[in-house]
Amino acid sequence: MQKALLYVMELLDEELFFLILRFLQDGPCKKAAEALKEEVAKYQLLPKRIDWEGNNYPRQYEELVSTHPHIATDHLKRIVSRLPSLLEDKYPPNVRGVLSLLGAGNQSLLRSEKTADVLLKPSGYLFSQHDELLPLPNSLQHPPHMWF
Description:
By secondary structure, the protein is mainly α. 48% of the residues lie in helices and 3% in strands. β1 and β2 (56-57) form a beta hairpin.
């Protein structure tokens, strides 16, 4: 079982390198794309071809592009853009409609059942940022509901 999991993770890494390279090819970072292209070729990091006997053969980027014409340069971006909607029903975020790949806690795309119930109250957030509770602003020192 462990060997199968390692194989799947390696394949995932290889496919991610290909998708990242496709993404970079169409953007402004042409030098980064060329550098990555050289690195993945040098270390054989792209998905390999497997023959009927189970032997692996390295493939070049151009070969993968021609054998996978359905993978456009925005394919990775389209995959990532679908993640929030797939996740929202099962583990709703604190603030619906806010999409960030950099979110944390309930706004994270990596949230799970364990993290879904953890809500950070504003006072807890302030404490975590400043190691002490901040005083209320003057306008809230005596809230209207306490005036009688």
